[in-house]
Design brief:
This protein is an alpha+beta fold. The protein contains four helices and three strands, in the order ββααβαα.
């Protein structure tokens, strides 16, 4: 099944909808979904849209959830300075 995932400007997955939800709520238009997700942003009145919608395919909701949970592991390791992924100031 196809899923449409909204990623904010920082690359964080914020919202996911499946094909059926996209058709029912956003008239089957990923751009409409993107505008709806960006509506709460500070620059929306100026026509500025930050972020993007990715189209992903998974066999089940569980696979989608596993994928979404795995995002950011490498980034959180960097900021928490796990093992040898420390930020260096030069």
């Amino acid at each position: 099944m196809k899923y449409y995932v909204y990623f904010d400007a920082y690359g964080h997955a914020r919202q996911a909808v499946n094909e059926k939800e996209l058709a029912e709520n956003y008239r089957n238009d990923p751009d409409r979904f993107l505008r709806a997700m960006c509506r709460a942003g500070p620059h929306t009145d100026k026509g500025h849209i930050s972020g993007h919608v990715g189209t992903l395919s998974f066999r089940s909701d569980e696979e989608l959830n596993d994928y979404l949970e795995s995002l950011g592991d490498e980034i959180s390791g960097f900021y928490r300075a796990d093992s040898d992924s420390r930020p260096y100031n030069f």
